[in-house]
Amino acid sequence: xxxxxxxxxxxxxxxxxxxxxxxxxxxxxxxxxxxxxxxxxxxxxxxxxxxxxxxxxxxxxxxxxxxxxxxxxxxxxxxxxxxxxxxxxxxxxxxxxxxxxxxxxxxxxxxxxxxxxxxxxxxxxxxxxxxxxxxxxxxxxxxxxxxxxxxxxxxxxxxxxxxxxxxxxxxxxxxxxxxxxxxxxxxxxxxxxxxxxxxxxxxxxxxxxxxxxxxxxxxxxxxxxxxxxxxxxxxxxxxxxxxxxxxxxxxxxxxxxxxxxxxxxxxxxxxxxxxxxxxxxxxxxxxxxxxxxxxxxxxxxxxxxxxxxxxxxxxxxxxxxxxxxxxxxxxxxxxxxxxxxxxxxxxxxxxxxxxxxxxxxxxxxxxxxxxxxxxxxxxxxxxxxxxxxxxxxxxxxxxxxxxxxxxxxxxxxxxxxxxxxxxxxxxx
Length: 428
Known about the structure:
Blueprint: H1 3-28, H2 30-37, E1 46-52, E2 55-58, E3 61-70, E4 73-76, E5 82-87, E6 94-95, E7 100-104, H3 107-143, H4 148-181, E8 183-185, E9 190-192, E10 202-203, E11 212-215, E12 219-227, H5 228-239, H6 243-247, E13 250-254, E14 261-269, E15 279-287, E16 298-304, E17 309-315, E18 320-322, E19 325-332, E20 335-347, E21 350-355, E22 362-364, E23 377-380, H7 382-405, H8 409-412
Parallel strand pairs: 1-23
Antiparallel strand pairs: 1-22, 2-17, 3-12, 3-16, 4-11, 5-7, 5-10, 6-9, 7-8, 9-11, 12-15, 13-14, 13-16, 14-15, 17-21, 18-19, 19-20, 20-21
């Protein structure tokens, strides 16, 4: 016998053994037992979870891709020149309006304030002396002891001294402003970024460099674009021209990797439609109390209808795709039937069915990959399926326990008495 013939015989025996073992396992399984009991050994109807199609009031939601933007965003830059003496915050810290962020060397600005204060004090002294001279000139003019020209000179001197006071006061205020600007404070509440320039570096007010940024964290904008058709048919039809009605349109937001939804309200729609894209810019505002929403994130923005309509809906997992067509499986005369449907908007993980289904149709919602048109199926509720699975699991476990407790045939066979090999022969 050649080597190839030997290999073929071995492979044939192996395949036969596999088929035999599979048949035995199938016969022992619940399906195999059921099939053996059916006429002709046909497979029983496969149990599948179904729902009965019915109308219910639904709120229609339209979905748009958006990006989150900070309500308030501030770039902190120096307004005076000098060395940074101290940075007063940590990276990513939450700051309040008025908190000190940076301190720039204050010595030259404090000196300028002191100098301006001295000039202002001298101007006030000059003005007080000029006021006294003017009062004496008035008395002398009455008695004719001073000429009209002398009186006019003292009057003009008083006016000049008052002007000098105003100029000195303005210089003092300017010096004080520069001194105050050497202490950089947070202009808003929010989360601060890291310091871009650290302690000891020189900064200048001209072409001022960026020191850090602050973004507000209590609220956040969701910016998105709405196509013209949706804006006219879905939004304008609800709100008309009223800004108050636009703000009353329900809106919510969710992140791509998060199931949590954030409720918000419409902030505004733009005043024009972009002719290049055929869309209008929109903005909604959302509370951000848990600080989970960060500026720059992509998000899914949903706009809802103001009322509800009665529609047939099916779970999204029940809908299958056949090229460009959408379809579901329904049960007709105990068999799975292909049913093409026209879908509408999404609502709470369900799809609205515009056409293709009637009230009362039994729609299969799971095990869809195991189903083919015409396959025998038995519709069950999810609770009935779970109970059947539990009963089958209990039966399998009971059978396994009985098999373990039953004695083997070898153990129940009575042993035969055999003479010992070396035993002496019995005497007659």
